[in-house]
Specification:
The chain is of the alpha/beta class. It folds into 2 domains: 309 residues, 3-Layer(aba) Sandwich (Rossmann fold); 48 residues, no CATH class. The chain is built from 15 helices and 9 strands. It has a 7-stranded parallel sheet, with helices on both faces. The chain has a two-stranded antiparallel ribbon with strand order 6-7. A hairpin with a 2-residue loop joins strand 6 and strand 7. Helix 1 packs across helix 2 and helix 2 runs parallel beside helix 9. The radius of gyration is 24 Å and the shape is globular. Bound molecules: thiamine diphosphate. The site of thiamine diphosphate has 15 residues, from strand 6.
Length: 381
């Protein structure tokens, strides 16, 4: 009955390849084909410009409250590029770049944040779940998908995302535990932007990294510079390859910073300083990646400008399309709030559906009578 020591891992790796000044560690540089590098940059830029446009729309009263993604593009894009169409992408709500890369039309994103459920319909050709706002609730879903794939002997993987605040939710730990016990092929990607609305990281957890939580679940864990798309790429590629080969789940923490308010309804001045945000602005992911592409000869300054124009055209067209769609009879059908919830409408909802139908009929009759009266008086005068 001795009092002895059980040896466990005490170290967590940190990975950075392309620093904030675009200095590259050549020995760690991944071998990514030029076309793929361009694609990565394109969707990071498309995410950023869509986000900026949506903010303007929100301020003009043309969009509902939404959480911005600016600053999170490297984590989203550096990871999603490593999964195939029939793998699963299970996002939270700041993975805009990755969703656009997976084929989500920009107009769907705009419709979603304007309250239209049609915006949640994933593109046919990919295995994606929609945006998930209830914190950490997507994680058990991701693990369930992974466990099902093991049972079906499918060789796909699941890439799922969550914030630092989500690590305080039971769902997060239940998901990590199940994934580890059942060797589910899930890559957990934490976007550690150091705040959960106004709660800073040190009030969220007493440990130094999110990545070290992997030790307790006996899975590989690593922290990477979350603004370095190359580091995210390398870490997630290793995790995807491992999961696909039957090696089970991994936890990857991307350390980043939310460059914007939490949502369009938040005022970050109340809990953090502009000076810190300005510091992080210099470390943001797109500038250094653009420099890398230029240094490498993959894109010229002119190519980068042309891509800005291309992206701008895509965003403009999507805004027009979304606003047109929002006026369509199909989307304005009040029954949509009931019809898209269950495959077979249950009795209690059917009763509410009938009641809604009666209400609409009464309203239409009342309006028709009012109009008839108006035109009668119009005819007499
Ligand atoms: C289950 C649940 N509880 C509370 C909220 C309200 N809420 C929305 S975002 C948020 C903070 C989430 O922080 P984090 O996980 O770090 O993600 P971030 O927004 O920073 O990307 C909270 C508490 C929610 N959406 N869902």
């Amino acid at each position: 009955m001795p009092r002895t020591v059980i040896e466990i891992a005490q170290k967590i790796e940190y990975l950075s390849i392309l620093d904030e000044n675009a200095n590259l560690d050549k020995s760690l540089e991944p071998d990514i084909p030029a076309e793929q590098l361009k694609t990565m940059y394109k969707y990071m830029l498309l995410g950023r410009r869509t986000d900026e446009r949506m903010l303007k729309m929100q301020r003009q009263g043309r969009l509902g409250t939404f959480p911005q993604s600016a600053g999170h593009e490297a984590i989203s894009m550096g990871s999603v590029i490593n999964i195939k169409k029939d793998d699963w992408h299970v996002p939270a709500y700041r993975e805009l770049a990755g969703m656009l890369y997976r084929g989500w039309p920009i107009e769907n994103i705009i419709l979603f944040w304007n309250g239209f459920e049609e915006g949640t319909r994933p593109p046919e050709e990919v295995n994606d779940l929609p945006i998930c706002v209830p914190i950490a609730s997507q994680l058990p879903h991701a693990v369930g998908i992974g466990m099902a794939m093991n049972i079906k002997k499918e060789k796909n993987v699941v890439m799922t995302y969550f914030g630092d605040g989500a690590t305080s939710e039971g769902d997060c730990h239940e998901a990590l535990n199940f994934a580890s016990v059942f060797k589910a092929p899930v890559v957990f990607v934490c976007l550690n932007n150091q705040y959960a609305i106004s709660v800073p990281l040190e009030r969220q957890m007493a440990c130094e990294t999110v990545a070290q939580k992997a030790i307790a679940y006996n899975m590989p864990g690593i922290r990477v510079d979350g603004n370095d798309v190359l580091a995210v790429y390398v870490a997630t590629k290793e995790a995807v390859d491992r999961a696909r080969a039957g090696g089970g789940p991994s936890l990857i923490e991307g350390l980043t910073y939310r460059l914007t308010p939490h949502t369009t309804a938040d005022d970050p001045k109340r809990y953090r300083s502009d000076a810190t945000t300005d510091e992080w602005m210099k470390k943001e992911p797109l500038i250094r990646f653009a420099k890398y592409l230029q240094n490498k000869g993959v894109m010229s300054a002119k190519d980068l400008e042309d891509m800005e124009v291309e992206v701008d055209t895509l965003v403009k067209a999507a805004v027009t399309k979304a606003e047109e769609m929002a006026k369509s009879e199909e989307l304005l059908n009040p029954y949509n709030i009931i019809d898209h919830v269950f495959a077979d409408v249950p009795q209690f909802l059917q009763e509410q559906r009938d009641e809604l139908g009666e209400y609409m009929k009464r309203e239409n009759d009342r309006k028709a009578k009012k109009n008839a009266k108006k035109s009668e008086t119009g005819a007499l005068s």
